[in-house]
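User: Here's a structure from my thesis project, written as structure tokens. My advisor, Dr. K., wants to see whether a designed sequence matches the one we expressed. Can you design one independently, without my sequence as a hint?
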């Protein structure tokens, strides 16, 4: 019985991994009712995995549709998949997947009446779902769809906006980064809709979200970092749609949130990475030198902690030394050469702590870091540092296996700064032979460091 169970489980898993709906249907139909009941969880997971893959490919425009009937893939195949799963697995109702299909269908350039009908079907499915236990997150999806319907109809009735807000609040009854993001995006989406009270409703949504997020942050202040990322994401991708003064206000608010996490303690690598990146971004937004240095130093703290947690990762030493270079540029402008050298020497120590010193990503950044050391601290008048950079870049060239042009360009730069113009040109020619087909103009012609050989390259 155990072997048979393993065989059935393995077969279901393999069919799911192959995204083979036809074979999965045939296999499931060959199982007895008792076996289907026994493997209900595995079968459900398999159908969901297949649906997720096709859904992902669809939204990424990887599916070629019938030009005469572009809806057919979603209408027939994806909805058909949902119906197959619900027919085969006893008691299964795929509310989210069925509703998502109707939302996709509403995106087609059909008549407004047809699109509205699809949205209404999705809304009714989500409404059934949220009445059942275990579908709390679909409150947010339902709220999104209500906004979709309002946008299509151009009717922004206060009761429906109130209903949408209540659904976001219900979805956010427990903390979820995904739901937080949807709630926040909804608040700003309102500003892009055309109705008289949009600022009032925007502020109402944002205030309700702030109250809930602050409550969750009392348990874990990392919520402030998620909040920060949400706001700065809006600035990065939606800045042209926000009034300039409001965008400035949002940026100020987002940076203020970082005060709550500047002393955050964790050994979670993802969180350390995100914390470091947040403070690094903040450093780039200010012109105040003391603030820049503070944010850089805080970013450095999180990245070096990340390296302590995982000394094998190439990312943390690279991110940390990028911060050190940014700080070094500030001190170089202040003509504080001693501090510049101190920062680069600290960076060399950070690179040396990595437990995989010959990793391609690590050594290419390490080599380029040393090139910048020679530039900022010694105006390239340091053969010793340039030779050290060359050693790292030669390792990167070997590890790159002729797949990357960057080691060649950096080695050519080192050769030129060491006074060997012929060697520089030879390396650039090798680079051109290997990678010239990928660019119309030699990248060295875009780099001021190669000005001395531009005539030979041009």
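Assistant: Designed independently from the structure alone:
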């Amino acid at each position: 019985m155990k072997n048979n169970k393993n065989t059935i489980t393995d077969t279901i898993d393999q069919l799911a991994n192959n995204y083979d709906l036809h074979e999965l249907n045939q296999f499931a139909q060959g199982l007895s009712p008792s076996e289907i009941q026994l493997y209900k969880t595995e079968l459900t997971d398999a159908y969901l995995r297949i649906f997720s893959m096709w859904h992902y490919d669809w939204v990424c425009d990887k599916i070629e549709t019938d030009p005469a009937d572009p809806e057919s893939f979603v209408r027939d195949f994806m909805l058909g998949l949902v119906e197959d799963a619900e027919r085969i697995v006893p008691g299964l109702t795929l509310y989210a997947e069925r509703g998502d299909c109707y939302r996709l269908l509403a995106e087609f350039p059909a008549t407004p009446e047809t699109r509205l009908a699809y949205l209404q079907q999705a809304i009714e499915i989500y409404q059934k779902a949220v009445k059942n236990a275990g579908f709390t997150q679909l409150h947010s999806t339902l709220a999104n769809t209500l906004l979709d319907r309002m946008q299509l109809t151009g009717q922004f009735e206060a009761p429906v906006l109130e209903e949408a807000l209540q659904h976001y609040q219900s979805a956010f009854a427990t903390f979820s980064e995904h739901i937080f993001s949807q709630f926040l995006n909804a608040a700003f989406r309102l500003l892009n809709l055309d109705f008289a009270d949009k600022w009032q409703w925007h502020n109402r949504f944002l205030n309700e979200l702030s109250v809930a997020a602050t409550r969750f942050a009392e348990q874990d202040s990392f919520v402030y970092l998620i909040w920060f990322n949400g706001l700065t994401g809006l600035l990065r991708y939606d800045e042209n749609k926000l009034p300039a003064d409001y965008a400035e206000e949002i940026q100020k608010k987002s940076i203020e949130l970082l005060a709550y996490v500047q002393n955050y303690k964790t050994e979670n690598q993802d969180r350390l990475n995100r914390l470091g990146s947040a403070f690094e971004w903040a450093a780039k937004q200010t012109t105040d030198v003391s603030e820049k240095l503070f944010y850089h130093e805080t970013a450095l703290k999180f990245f070096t902690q990340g390296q302590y947690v995982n000394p094998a990762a190439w990312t943390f030493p690279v991110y940390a030394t990028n911060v050190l270079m940014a700080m070094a540029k500030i001190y170089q402008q202040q003509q504080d050469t001693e501090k510049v050298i101190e920062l680069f020497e600290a960076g060399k120590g950070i690179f040396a702590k990595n437990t995989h010193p010959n990793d391609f990503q690590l050594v290419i950044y390490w080599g380029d870091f040393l090139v910048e050391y020679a530039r900022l601290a010694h105006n390239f008048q340091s053969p010793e540092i340039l030779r050290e950079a060359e050693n790292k870049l030669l390792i990167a060239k070997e590890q790159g296996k002729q797949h990357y042009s960057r080691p060649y360009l950096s080695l050519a730069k080192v050769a030129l700064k060491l006074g060997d113009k012929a060697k520089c040109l030879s390396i650039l020619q090798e680079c051109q032979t290997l990678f010239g087909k990928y660019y119309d103009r030699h990248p060295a012609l875009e780099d001021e460091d190669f000005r001395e050989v531009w005539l030979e390259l041009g």
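When you compare it with your expressed construct, this may help: The mean pLDDT is 94.
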